[in-house]
Amino acid sequence: MRATRGFTLIEVMVALTLSALVVLLAHSVFTGVVEGARRLQAARTALDREGNAHRSLTELFGSLDVGTEGTAGFAGRPDRVEFTTWQRVPQGWLERRRAVVAVENGVLVSRTDVSLALEDSVTGVAFDYLLEPGANAAWVREWISPVSAPVAVRMRIQRAAAIDTLLFIVGSRG
Q1: Does residue 132 surpass a pLDDT of 90?
Q2: Which of 43, 51, 86, 149 is deepest in the core (most CB within 10 A)?
């Protein structure tokens, strides 16, 4: 009998096959982790953007300035709204600015001196204006006044699959 040393060809093939399988499984696990992290970051960015858009609109409507000298009136149409508001500028203080909120090319935008994209993939927007506070108060489709503003503004943002309704309480009504 002769003693043999080393591995047979079948043992080497089995070891290489198992090693390749381990490498493929590790690659698929790491790819899944990276893809999950990328989707999480995209969802976090979208959520931050939506929250910033809502805060921006709340601040615009909350610091509305109508009926004072040197301001244009409140012009609320069914598909857009224009008004004067106090807006924080990059220098840190508030300045009176004319604001327009409307849909332009499928994007809900707020325009003052610059255009700010608030929501993407918007197919339409509808505004309603609250006349007076109370349980039986009426909403109207238009509000055009040089000296007063509505109590609240209801904005319905339409997308392909859903409609979001946002309610903004107006600050000073003039």
Answers
A1: no
A2: 149
